[in-house]
């Protein structure tokens, strides 16, 4: 990460013409990126890549703060209640910024409580097993789940996150049962999965990649419609069984600010993110994690988020899922 930050400083002036406009605004005081998840997951990784980059660009401290719990809603509310001055940012994701609006009955924020700034990274989830599970293909795994008849447990990075709903949808389509065990982020989940305390998970490929490559977890397939370029031999789950043909889940992580943040600030921070995404080191790091950069202006990101909210709302209503935010 330190090497990435140094190269950012060296290459940034040549990265994008938009960077000149980004220099029109600086926070002037300490800024922060709130992470609505525990350390170790993709949300955490992305914030901790961006924080030192912003700090180098602005010349003022930028801290990354973990505010986990409630499927990402606790950290989100922290930012929603913050001053819209550009110094309070949220590293949001598909869970609290898309799925939560339909999943939770008593959610204290709405889509217009936040200002979308920029998407950052996107990628699939991946079905990973503890090596003790006696399955090496998806059909074998489904057969094992049916034999277990609800005794098997899968970990999630939080209620209402895409790894949680990936498991729900998988069980629905394959007519299987398993018990969801919810953690405060992908970091704690992976610790227990590697230890064998839960037996499988639908984790973000970005946070599981190191364990897959290290042989600590066995990957059976990605949740996206197509295979991942980083693991081309790993099938998309929809390839493996006729029942899974409709299965298509991709996850994403992007930057938000409180509603009412002035447009010039939003545009300036977006331009900084675009420059960061254009750096060769960024693309290389994302590829190692199984993700790809997701560039675009604030308007594009806002439209993308609206579409995600609508898509997951339909899935949740169809499945009859509803719960209270904690």
Automatic annotation (TrEMBL):
Pfam families: TctC (PF03401). Residues 1-22 form the signal peptide. It comes from the Bacteria. CDD domains: PBP2_Bug_TTT. Gene3D superfamilies: Bordetella uptake gene, domain 1 (3.40.190.150), Periplasmic binding protein-like II (3.40.190.10). InterPro entries: BUG (IPR005064), Bug_dom1 (IPR042100). Keywords: Signal. Belongs to the UPF0065 (bug) family. This is Tripartite tricarboxylate transporter substrate binding protein. It comes from Neoroseomonas marina.
């Amino acid at each position: 990460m330190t090497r990435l930050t140094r190269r950012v400083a060296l290459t940034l002036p040549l990265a994008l013409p938009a960077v000149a406009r980004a220099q029109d605004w600086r926070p002037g005081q300490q800024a922060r990126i709130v992470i609505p998840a525990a350390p170790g997951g993709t949300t955490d990784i992305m914030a901790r890549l961006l924080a030192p980059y912003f700090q180098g660009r602005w010349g003022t401290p930028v801290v990354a703060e973990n505010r986990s719990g409630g499927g990402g809603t606790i950290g989100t509310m922290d930012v929603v209640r913050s001053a819209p001055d550009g110094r309070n940012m949220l590293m949001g994701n598909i869970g609290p910024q898309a799925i939560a609006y339909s999943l939770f009955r008593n959610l204290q924020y709405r889509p217009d409580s936040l200002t979308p700034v920029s998407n950052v990274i996107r990628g699939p989830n991946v079905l990973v097993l503890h090596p003790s599970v006696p399955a090496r293909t998806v059909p074998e795994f489904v057969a094992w789940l049916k034999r277990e008849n609800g005794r098997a447990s899968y970990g999630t990075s939080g209620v209402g996150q895409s790894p949680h709903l990936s498991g729900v949808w998988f069980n629905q389509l394959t007519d299987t049962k398993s018990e969801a065990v919810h953690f405060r982020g992908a970091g704690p989940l992976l610790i227990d999965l590697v230890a064998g305390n839960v037996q499988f998970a639908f984790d973000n490929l970005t946070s599981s990649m190191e364990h897959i490559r290290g042989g600590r977890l066995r990957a059976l397939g990605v949740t996206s419609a197509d295979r991942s370029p980083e693991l081309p031999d790993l099938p998309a789950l929809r390839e493996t069984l006729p029942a899974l043909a409709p299965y298509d889940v991709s996850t994403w992580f992007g930057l938000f600010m409180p509603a009412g943040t002035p447009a010039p600030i939003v545009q300036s921070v977006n331009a900084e993110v675009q420059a960061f995404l254009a750096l060769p080191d960024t693309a290389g790091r994302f590829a190692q994690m199984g993700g790809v950069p997701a560039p675009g202006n604030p308007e594009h990101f806002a439209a993308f988020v609206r579409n995600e909210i609508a898509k997951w709302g339909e899935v949740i209503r169809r499945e009859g899922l509803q719960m209270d935010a904690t």
